[in-house]
Amino acid sequence: MICHIEVYGCQMNVHDGEILSGILKAAGHTVVRNAKIAEAVFVVTCAVREHAETRALGRITHLAGIPKKKPIMVLCGCVAQEHGEKLLKKIKLLDFVIGPDVYHLIPELLQERRRLSVTDQGAEDYEQVKAVREQFPRSYVTVMRGCDNFCTYCIVPYVRGRERSRPSELILKEVEKLVEAGYGEITLLGQNVNSYTHNGMNFPKLLEKVSTVAGDRCRVRFVTSNPRDLTAELASVMASRENICNQFHLPAQSGNDRVLKAMRRGYTRNGYIEKIAMLKELMPDIVISTDMIAGFPGETLEEFEDTVSLMKEVRYDYAFLFRYSEREGTAALNISPPVPVKERLRRLSILQDLQAKITLEKSREIIGREMTVLVTGPARRAGQMASRTMGNRLIILESLDFTPGELVPVRIVKADGYTHFGEPVSV
Ligand code: SF4
User: Fold this and answer.
1) Where are the alpha helices (DSSP H) in 104-166?
2) What is the pTM of this model?
3) DSSP strand E in 24-135: where?
4) Residue 154 CA: which ligand 1 atom is closest?
5) Which of 11, 12, 148, 149 has the most ligand 1 atoms within 8 A of CB, as the residue to mutate?
6) Ligand 1 in contact with 320 (CB < 6 A)?
7) Fewest CB within 10 angstroms: 118, 276, 311, 326, which?
8) Residue 154 in contact with ligand 1 by CB distance below 6 A
9) Which domains does the chain show, CATH number per domain?
10) What is the pLDDT of residue 59?
11) Is 191 near ligand 1, meaning CB less than 6 Å away?
């Protein structure tokens, strides 16, 4: 069958899309980018915010209408897990609703003539799957799935299930194969990688082993960390290894202790700032990003100002900023009073303006510096190549004389916030 896959949401979903592609290919199906010729269409959805959910569901109708003959429509990912059977009743165009832990059943289900919803949790069996990777020279390796933290605004524990860590020997074998295949970067994935544990191996030890297997031609990143689980052990492993990227995504969500408690984040503002200080002390040129929520239920103006002041104090290189979005089944729905949506949007735009200013200032601080970038592929504009620093900054090279996977020493000559321009320098 000719299949088309569309993915929304986080890197975990992107990699699940690569796993799904591998499952379909192994079963003799073909996966194509062109939806027009598809006989089956898979939409891998994200449920983290209402907007993401509505957008993905909207695509179903659009994609079902593209090919001449209506294709088999399969809704996958977190929205499938969240609503399951209900979606089959709600969206007549859908043939299957498949949760993120049962993609290995899809080849069999495609034989079915009935409309079905399958959302068993924690049953994934993807170790035998050869993922079809789409991001050479960058690659993803899942180290754990699920989350047990139940932050009060978050749907993830409900749609991704309880934490389960992959055996370290299987992770290391996958890393070895990627290095042999010439990948220049590996990102370790998990909803909360810091709580990885398997046979007594914790995440810092796993990271150290991955760094050893990756060697000096492959960089290692990881995402996502909960600040409560960030340890000095992890920071010192990062600082002691050349090939572990000096980049850390540390979602704060709020700068106010009462709000952090209501979010059930498990750390305080000062505790968070101490962890940032620990990272900066061990890795002075570390690139730090975060997530922030504006307008969490009950958040007062003063408490919101604490988020503003935290962003001014930490001066993140980047930040993913969101307005609070009600998620069915999460504990925050019972917290009142809700902040009116208009006010959430007003607070969000204050954070966005502030961060845009900080990102621009920080990006200009690296003009004139020399760094080694990993060429990742053609840039959006013709005649340019895209590349990434260890800090994951996007560096544009004004030439096509480079190949994906190449490591190139450059001097930063221009910066405008999210994009930098680099000139190759001879070593
Ligand atoms: S740690 Fe992250 S994924 Fe887990 S519940 Fe909290 S916000 Fe959600």
Assistant:
1) 106-109, 156-160
2) 0.94
3) 30-31, 40-45, 72-76, 96-98, 116-118
4) 8
5) 149
6) no
7) 326
8) yes
9) 2-118 (3.40.50.12160), 138-364 (3.80.30.20), 370-424 (2.40.50.110)
10) 87
11) yes
